[in-house]
Design goal:
This protein has 468 residues and is mainly alpha-helical. The protein is built from 19 helices and no strands. The chain is globular.
């Protein structure tokens, strides 16, 4: 709780800086990222000793696992909004979610292959093994939660400081999301690539909070009598039930021998998803879903995401991985460039009128998380009028399935079950499979817009372009 209190102080400081510092307002850097940077300095310069109470980096790592699981449980417990749309819109949503989801899978398979090969070449100089390059997708494509989850598993196999390396990948990705993503979004807006012309960005968006005249009720209906149990208490109680079930699921997976059982046992967030699906089904069967407040549920998800970001920064102890900083920075820069190029090449080829919005949002997902991608999306589509926001949610179904083979291969190598050559060949084979699936899904077409072509190239069609 003391560690959570420290993170809270950083968030309050970050909120003030977001409202007052011009560069933070210009790039719309979320408070959680600003707070994380401050917390990173606070933890790594020994300033925490001024509080007369030492907090270990590992404490923040433990919090990350549970916050990440809570966030996924809350996402599953939230009901998707009902869409009254035309069939053509439904097809565009399906195509967009499949195209972005499988593009993410391609990156997820390529980056560990690339990272391992880079460390085969330069890692020996720094004493850094290829397995740390294989961790790239855990940090960049998935974020701090999986970095800690899979990093913990790797440390269990004897690979030291895997958690710290994964978290450093994650926070570098968060920074790149806005350092590159915001200019990319603004450049596209200047070229008229957006479906909706939002005009000037409201002051409350850059400021980061509402003044009284801007405030609107947004917490939905109260479903419980607060004199009995508060609605927030009730929703957290449901999450707590799911969390306990998830812990038992994780223990039961240990009954499965070998790497598969150990891997599934370590994925508390995935077991949280299973638990939430079951609990949500039971609630609906008992016809008690009238007690749920979807607006409040999304706020709980956002609460977990905000704390998750700042605590991820505070969990990194640079002193533990000082000798590896150079190769880690090389891996981060190369991965960011690759993610940007893949976003610019493949996403516009999915087809449909919202190719620009998808491209910007996908870059946010490829180096950050879905919440950071939504921040970028709101820059160009502030009212989320395009289907891109829905597609970002649906693509997770494809991403979860696509990530599992890579996780099993990495863990098998870390456990000594596969040789390096076998592991690299498996990465290449899985990536080739995902590329073939991309073609079969008919999401590899002519680009629907051009970032760098003539303005006439950006007259977007109302319907997806024909397949090649």
């Amino acid at each position: 709780m003391f560690a959570m209190g420290l993170a809270s102080i950083m968030l309050l400081i970050g909120m003030v800086l977001r409202a007052k510092v011009p560069i933070f307002k210009k790039y719309m850097v979320p408070t959680s990222v600003i707070a994380g940077l401050i917390g990173f300095v606070f933890m790594n310069t020994g300033m925490s000793t001024l509080l007369l109470r030492q907090v270990e980096f590992g404490t923040f790592s433990i919090i990350i696992v549970y916050l990440f699981t809570i966030a996924f449980i809350s996402i599953i417990l939230t009901d998707a909004p009902k869409q009254e749309s035309e069939s053509s819109t439904g097809k565009n949503i399906l195509k967009g979610s499949m195209g972005m989801g499988n593009t993410w899978n391609i990156l997820y398979a390529f980056t560990p292959l690339m990272g391992a090969l880079i460390l085969v070449v330069i890692g020996g100089v720094f004493g850094m093994g290829p397995v740390y390059g294989m961790m790239l997708p855990f940090g960049f494509a998935q974020g701090p939660g999986q970095s800690v989850t899979f990093g913990t598993m790797l440390e269990g196999f004897g690979w030291e400081n895997a958690i710290m390396v994964g978290l450093l990948y994650s926070v570098f990705g968060f920074i790149m999301t806005f350092l590159i993503g915001i200019p990319l979004a603004k450049y596209g807006m200047k070229r008229g690539l957006g479906v909706y012309k939002g005009g000037e960005i409201p002051e409350y968006v850059t400021r980061g909070h509402y003044h009284p005249e801007d405030q609107k009720p947004s917490l939905g209906q109260s479903t419980t009598y607060s004199g009995n149990i508060d609605i927030l208490t009730f929703h957290f109680a449901i999450i707590g039930l799911c969390l306990i079930i998830a812990i038992y699921f994780s223990n039961w997976w240990l009954l499965v021998p070998g790497t598969i059982g150990a891997s599934l046992s370590g994925m508390l967030f995935m077991n949280g998803i299973f638990a939430a699906v079951i609990v949500k089904f039971i609630i609906k069967k008992l016809k008690l879903d009238f007690l749920k407040n979807n607006v409040l549920q999304t706020k709980i998800t956002a609460w977990a995401a905000d704390y998750l970001v700042v605590i991820s920064f505070m969990a990194i102890g640079v002193g533990l991985i000082r000798d590896w900083i150079i190769p880690i920075l090389i891996l981060c820069v190369v991965t960011t460039i690759v993610s940007l190029l893949v976003s610019l090449y493949l996403i516009p080829r999915i087809g449909g009128p919202n190719g620009f919005e998808r491209t910007v949002a996908f870059f946010g997902v490829s180096v950050g998380t879905v919440p950071t991608a939504l921040v970028l999306l709101r820059v160009i589509d502030p009212e989320l009028k395009t289907t891109t926001g829905i597609e970002l949610g649906l693509m997770n179904l494809i991403m979860i399935v696509g990530s599992l083979p890579i996780v099993f291969v990495v863990m098998a190598y870390a456990a000594g079950d596969f040789t390096l050559t076998q592991t690299l060949l498996m990465f290449a084979g899985i990536m080739a499979l995902y590329l073939a699936i991309h073609k079969l899904l008919q999401v590899w077409n002519k680009p629907s817009f051009s970032f760098f072509g003539k303005s006439s190239d950006n007259d977007l069609p109302e319907k997806p372009t024909k397949n090649i």
